[in-house]
Amino acid sequence: MTYLNEHYPNYGPSSWPNPYQPTYTPSYPLSPWYQDEDSSYRAKEQPLTFVLVHGAWADTSFWAGIASELSKKGHTVYVPEFPGHGADPNKNVTHAMMSKSIADFIISHNLHNVVLVAHSFGGTLIQKVAELVPDRLKRLVFLNAFVLKDGGMAADEFPPQATEQFKQLVASSKNNTLMLPFELFRETFTNLGTLEQAKRIYSKVSPEPAGPLFEKLDLKKFYSLPIPKSYIHITEDNVIPFGDPNYGWHPHMSSRLGIFRFLQVHGDHMTTPQYEPKLIAAKIYEASRD
Amino acid sequence: MTYLNEHYPNYGPSSWPNPYQPTYTPSYPLSPWYQDEDSSYRAKEQPLTFVLVHGAWADTSFWAGIASELSKKGHTVYVPEFPGHGADPNKNVTHAMMSKSIADFIISHNLHNVVLVAHSFGGTLIQKVAELVPDRLKRLVFLNAFVLKDGGMAADEFPPQATEQFKQLVASSKNNTLMLPFELFRETFTNLGTLEQAKRIYSKVSPEPAGPLFEKLDLKKFYSLPIPKSYIHITEDNVIPFGDPNYGWHPHMSSRLGIFRFLQVHGDHMTTPQYEPKLIAAKIYEASRD
Amino acid sequence: MTYLNEHYPNYGPSSWPNPYQPTYTPSYPLSPWYQDEDSSYRAKEQPLTFVLVHGAWADTSFWAGIASELSKKGHTVYVPEFPGHGADPNKNVTHAMMSKSIADFIISHNLHNVVLVAHSFGGTLIQKVAELVPDRLKRLVFLNAFVLKDGGMAADEFPPQATEQFKQLVASSKNNTLMLPFELFRETFTNLGTLEQAKRIYSKVSPEPAGPLFEKLDLKKFYSLPIPKSYIHITEDNVIPFGDPNYGWHPHMSSRLGIFRFLQVHGDHMTTPQYEPKLIAAKIYEASRD
């Protein structure tokens, strides 16, 4: 019986407690003392240390299923929350505050040889985390995550019409946050899910701090780092509108990584990672092993 | 025992009777009185009303397998034939005649909350049907179907070389129709099928009225309608030649829909819908549910 | 019991003997006298004659698993080695020497109605073989294989940065060969494999003669030949960097074939063909049957 199973017998995204803690202690203490009875099964995978970084309109619960699957295979998994998200009431945050909090988390827990995995907007965070703690990282894994060019910002990666819509939504928020209407979210973030799944995921969405989406990032150091990189392309992800070759997860953003390990898997942006965690966890492992 | 099974024990595309009737009565009377013994199974899907619109070089038998699978799940399914197709000997038809006949079918059967599904050239028809009966439609679903721009025509969506070949074939027809040579059809419409499957599908192909393929459509109203839309991309469909980003089902034509629900499935243009109907019917349901 | 099973009970890429012979006798004598006990099973596939042409950084062992699977289904399979590869110590070869040796192999074994299959660089070879022995070929099948334009060279199909890296590696070789560093090979040729699989495949890699990669080919005759063609796209192949629409297996190179039969399958460039041979052999058959 694993730690996870003991404490979360009704495991699932909705029963997953919010692991956010202001001091950024490890969210998933599935640490070196973690033991699985079926060690022969575990032995099949090279044990890795994962730090999973969620994206916008999400909190650490996004990773709950995937973290559980990875830990079942014997991996050590951390899911840090970062400022402006989870239980943090302060939405007035900067990109640097968020990336620094993740780097601090890695340092304070004395993690080394980390596989740093990002989903969606989290990609922009791990680009900066890599600049802050390069020597502690074994590999970066992007799961339909943003890879910004030097000087770019997340908002650049949406076509002008979508960015314009975002700006209007931000203007209507009064606190510089961006909330997505359910109709849009259902069709583009959860397009493969049932209505029930889409609603359950949407019920956990908080308004996203808008500032960091419009911050230009200096990424010169990132593009000089020799850290190995992987990109997992989820093929039915409809968050970035299709149709213009100058936009999109893959190959538009993935190709900025230069030499990288490429993987592909069916799914949409939000439903598949949360409702088919075994599938995505397996891909993350394939993307991460030596 | 369902209506379908009683009447078509040897169900299959080749044994399927031609449901074309000049008065456009419902082809598949699997209507509200339809009952399935396994109601608990049916309960899993939200019951929907589908109207399925076939494409060029096809008749209602194209949908036979998919209609059967959808009706097994408790949905109400109609497959109207339209002028110039099926048993209609008159090939001298216009695009407006075809789209009006489908709108008339929906009105005369007093259908509401319709999921209007199109394959291939049928996409151009449901764009116009949506303009004619917008209040009766719940959603439009395009299955590797044309989405024309305002003022566009179907022939525009093929590269110049292909269009030129089409024009030569039309010129050689003497009655302004377009018939595809088997060799071309086998390699591009039925590329995943066996030779036997390709021949069986081809045996049902009639020369297509050429006029509507070259008609420019005013679609201003279509692009102002707020009807939800889905696009199902069949990934090995080779009907529109690959290689030029200005052509193709997805993302070139799909992206014209703006915000839409995206799904993807393996298959080719003609064989997979007819020989893997359960697979495609499941995708159509996923594309159509709330 | 088949010939293969008798002689290679521990069949696998590593136990596969090098079938290279300077006189180019058939590597796989699974010829007309080949008999399988389960003839009813075999009867399901139309018996075909395959000649399989490997690519760069490979030898005939690349095809071992696929050749075995095809022969189990009753097909006749030949895997010729060509100059500069396998046991040939002479790396000072030309493109014409390689393509001529394959054409000579087909002639000397009196093969007709051949399905000529190529992987990777082998695509450039079968383009020229088709010019040499067009009347002996039933179909050309490209499995993530180069399709060069008239006057093109293989090196053109890589973005300038990659070509530059290749040139530096050639310059450092002292004998005009090109050897890939393991790190690059692992991430881009074997991205889906385990480290063990990647190492096992890499252990068989010899430096590739660089001359033919930079030879411009006159392909006017190729583009006038009416031989049917198929392209099998392996979707996670990362050998040609993604991101520029002017590069890539599909649709960039595949579309040069004009009308062709298109198929798609998951996999990477080197691991999947060697470790999932049943999957790839099935696709090759689908690409090749009438």
From TrEMBL, chains A, B, C:
SUPFAM superfamilies, alphabetized:
alpha/beta-Hydrolases
AB hydrolase-1 domain spans which residues?
50-174
UniProt cross-references to InterPro entries, sorted A to Z: AB_hydrolase_1, AB_hydrolase_fold, Sec-Metab_Biosynth_Hydrolase
Protein name (database record): Pimeloyl-ACP methyl ester carboxylesterase
Give the organism the record lists. Paenibacillus qinlingensis
Organism taxonomic ancestry: Bacteria, Bacillati, Bacillota, Bacilli, Bacillales
